[in-house]
Design a protein that fits this description.
Strand content of chain A: under 5%
Number of strands of chain B: 6
Distance between the termini of chain A: 46 Å
Radius of gyration of chain A: 20 Å
Oligomer: heterodimer
Number of helices of chain A: 11
Order of helices and strands of chain B: HHHHEEHHHHEEHHHHHEEHHH
Order of helices and strands of chain A: HHHHHHHHHHEEH
Shape of chain B: globular
Helix content of chain A: over 70%
Distance between the termini of chain B: 56 Å
Structural class of chain B: mainly alpha
Strand order of the largest sheet of chain B: 1-2
Number of domains of chain B: 2
Strand content of chain B: 5-15%
Radius of gyration of chain B: 24 Å
């Protein structure tokens, strides 16, 4: 296996990590004002991801850095081409991050309520924008012969990509609900989460099915066996997550959801392979893991660095989750 | 043309804003870790209070640093995509390593530290804040490795129309980074020292919790003095190093137009950039030679000769950065540094002689002196980045060649306005909270109420 393929897999892994971890943070942020009705409840909900959310967000920074280091042309074309979308993503991330830190630092109902909603809206928008972005990776975008994006912000917004945004919102909302079921130590909140998740599950499955069918019709990402296998596994895992949630199997439904997110992400990347940015103008103009990549030397250096550090990161982040595995009650809040 | 102008302004705004928060994070993380260590060793609740009080302010500041940091990584691709293509093979690596090696540790262990009080074994909890401090400063190293390549590229070969890495160790042993990194770390220590001194002084002037804030002042004045002496010393060495590798930057920062031997130092000047001369100046004979070579003679090249040299080497063009802002930024930075040395020394004397408490004027001055490190940090970066112009990568790529060709000026303008508005609002929120928590009594903060203890704000 050459290093270009290895780095494509590593970037995929980083996005799986990001969507899985930050995914439930987004979900919790979105659901907070809906499932928590007073200040104490809001604080319990927000503190479920208290020790984790910042570390989760670093997965995005690392994915961005990895793309820059391993595939600079991909980074350059993607980030300049998706300019407005990324600008909005940045705004939502800034507001969310600051909101979580400051919302409880003033004893004012209006202050806290405002930040709760800002956190919810920015989580919602982030999730939506990632869905739009991922769907654009699937459909491809206008890339010219010089590896430059030849569209504008509205090129990225088609009915299909907007629907992709909706799917991601549902996906992360449901994922957040499963996380809350594991972490919240308040029966009132748990009941609300359960009844919401019961409904959300069905809508999510329906939306994902429609998205996959549309992707099958509109694109050829499912032409390879690997992508097909991934999407099949994703479907099984997702249905399992929804059914297990209905049966209130908290741990197992969360694990199933992890697999669902893993395979959804993997199916998209496997479908693109060996392209990293598909050109809708001429397939020959697509960015691939070869024409977009760094030099063999840089890939080698980065491989040594990544293969050393990523396992260590996984180790101490897992330990973090282990240390703070207890359910959150009104006694354990910081934010 | 507008694209370039807006993209540069956006970079300036987002970077200067981001760097308002970074130095305090770098320095205060270490100082809080020292306080925490003292608590661990003595089990004295006083130090626990100190750790929590200053830790709270650290966290408010930290959140802003994180939030604005993501923009930094993204905007290279968004606004500077041709630059990213040109140097991505080299520049991307330290950025990715920064995230992998530093940000993960910093963010994960900060979460552990915040939530770990009374939940973790004490030593492990102490270790977590030290890991935060270590990782914050490590992240500074990696981003400065990246910046140093832009300032003084080495370890590369031009290949396939871009700069490609040939030796990773050349990248991290770049002498530029080994001047810049210690300068930034000690600037962080200075910033944290003056931050804690300033707030302590305010409380001491009001006679609040005198023991607590006297102790805090003692820690911070020693810490700040060490920091500011080191930052000045390293800065001096850095200046001499820059004379060698980026003589144009230094010549511009000194408004030194004509080559001289021995060279005199221009203390203040009225600069006419069009004519390429100072219309008025106060000069100290031989001083610039002394600053450059530690000897009162020696040739220091002027802007005009350097311009001629660069034209011979790189072809026709204007290689002179904007002299006026560089000149005054340099004076602001050095002036702020000198003032801080003085204030920290006075602080040590007052503390030693037991007169601190009654030195009303000094305590008042120290509150305003909190601005000094921020002035020095900001102007320092202005010199570093503006002084490199017209290059984005020194000698290899011009700034004008680095921008994203596909992004219309209107997009950049919209995002610039958007960031500026949001940053403005966040600055208000941040300052408001820092003031609120800075004014609090440490007693009130020691045990922040949990949600169950606090009367729920609404039901």
């Amino acid at each position: 296996m050459d290093l270009n393929i290895l780095w494509f897999i590593l970037v995929t892994v980083l996005f799986i990590g990001f969507f899985f971890l930050e995914g439930f943070d987004y979900g919790v942020g979105m659901l907070n004002p809906i499932v928590a009705k007073n200040d104490t409840e809001r604080r319990i909900v927000l503190n479920t991801f208290g020790p984790f959310w910042d570390g989760n967000e670093v997965w995005l920074l690392t994915a961005g850095g990895a793309i820059f280091a391993a595939f600079p042309n991909w980074y350059a074309t993607l980030f300049s081409g998706f300019y407005m979308a990324l600008f909005l993503v940045l705004l939502t991330l800034i507001v969310r991050c600051v909101g979580i830190e400051v919302r409880s630092k003033k004893e004012s109902k209006q202050w806290r309520n405002t930040w709760d909603w800002l956190i919810a809206i920015s989580s919602f928008l982030s999730a939506f924008l990632w869905g739009v972005a991922v769907t654009n990776l699937v459909t491809g975008v206008p890339i010219d012969a010089n590896m430059q994006f030849a569209g504008n912000f509205f090129t990225l917004l088609t009915p299909f990509t907007i629907f992709g945004g909706v799917v991601f919102v549902l996906l992360f909302a449901f994922h957040g609900a499963l996380f809350l079921k594991l972490k919240v130590g308040s029966d009132v909140i748990l009941q609300r989460v359960k009844s919401l998740a019961d409904k959300l599950g069905f809508v999510l499955v329906a939306a994902v099915v429609i998205w996959v069918v549309l992707a099958y019709i509109l694109t050829d990402i499912y032409s390879g066996l690997l992508a097909l296998a991934c999407v099949a596994f994703a479907a099984v895992a997702l249905v399992a997550a929804v059914v297990l949630q209905l049966k209130d199997k908290k741990g197992f439904s969360f694990i199933a959801m992890f697999l669902a997110i893993l395979f959804v992400t993997a199916s998209v990347f496997a479908g693109m392979f060996p392209n990293v940015l598909i050109s809708t103008l001429d397939p020959a103009w697509s960015l691939t893991i070869y024409n977009a990549s760094s030099s063999p030397y840089t890939l080698k250096v980065m491989t040594i660095v990544a293969l050393t550090l990523v396992p260590i990161v996984l180790l101490y982040q897992s330990w973090n989750y282990y240390v703070f595995r207890k359910r959150i009650t009104a006694e354990d809040v910081h934010y | 043309m507008d694209q370039l102008l807006f993209a540069r302004w956006q970079f300036a705004i987002t970077t200067v804003y981001h760097f308002l928060f970074v130095p305090l994070t770098l320095g205060l993380s270490i100082l809080v870790a020292i306080m925490h260590t003292k608590y661990y060793r003595t089990n004295d609740l006083k130090y626990r209070k100190m750790t929590k009080f200053w830790g709270k302010l650290f966290l408010i500041n930290f959140a802003l640093g994180v939030a604005t940091g993501i923009v930094q990584e993204f905007q290279f691709g968004m606004n500077w995509s041709e630059y990213s293509r040109f140097v991505g093979d080299i520049f991307g690596a330290p950025l990715a390593i920064e995230a992998l090696a530093a940000f993960f540790i910093e963010s994960t262990f900060l979460g552990i530290w915040i939530f770990g009080w009374d939940k973790l074994p004490k030593l492990l909890h102490l270790l977590s804040i030290w890991l935060v401090a270590f990782a914050s400063n490590l992240s500074a190293f990696w981003i400065l490795v990246a910046n140093s390549f832009m300032q003084n590229p080495q370890g590369f070969v031009l290949n396939n129309g871009r700069a490609e890495m040939v030796n990773f160790f050349d990248l991290i042993t770049n002498p530029y980074v080994w001047h810049q990194f210690p300068h930034v770390v000690t600037a962080g220590i200075t910033t944290a020292g003056f931050f804690v001194m300033g707030i302590s002084a305010w409380h001491l002037a009001k006679k609040h919790d005198v023991d607590f804030f006297q102790k805090s002042f003692k820690y911070s004045v020693i810490y700040g003095l060490i920091g500011v002496l080191a930052v000045c010393g390293i800065g001096h060495a850095q200046g001499q190093f820059l004379m060698d590798v980026q003589p144009m930057k230094m010549a511009a920062a000194e408004a030194h137009w004509e080559t001289e031997d021995p060279a005199s130092f221009v203390a203040i000047a009225a600069i006419d950039e069009e004519a390429g001369e100072n219309t008025f100046s106060i000069e100290i004979p031989n001083m610039l030679s002394f600053m450059t070579y530690n000897s009162f003679s020696g040739e220091v090249k002027g802007i005009h000769d350097l311009q001629a040299e660069y034209e011979a080497k790189y072809g026709e063009g204007n290689y002179v950065p904007q002299v006026t802002p560089l000149f005054w930024s340099f004076r602001a930075m050095v002036g702020a540094g000198g003032l801080m040395v003085l204030l920290a020394l006075i602080g040590v004397v007052l503390l030693k002689t037991g007169k601190l408490q009654n030195s009303k004027l000094y305590l008042k001055v120290m509150l305003f002196a909190m601005a000094l490190p921020y002035i020095a940090n900001t102007t320092g970066w202005l010199i570093t980045e503006m002084g490199r112009q017209p290059w984005i990568v020194y000698g290899l790529q011009k700034t004008a060649e680095g921008i994203s060709t596909v992004v219309p000026a209107s997009y950049i303008l919209i995002s610039m306005i958007g960031f500026t508005l949001v940053y403005g609002i966040l600055a208000v929120v941040d300052v408001m909270l820092l003031v609120k928590y800075g004014k609090k009594s440490p007693e009130a903060l020691e045990e922040a109420p949990t949600a169950s203890e606090e009367v729920s704000l609404w039901t």
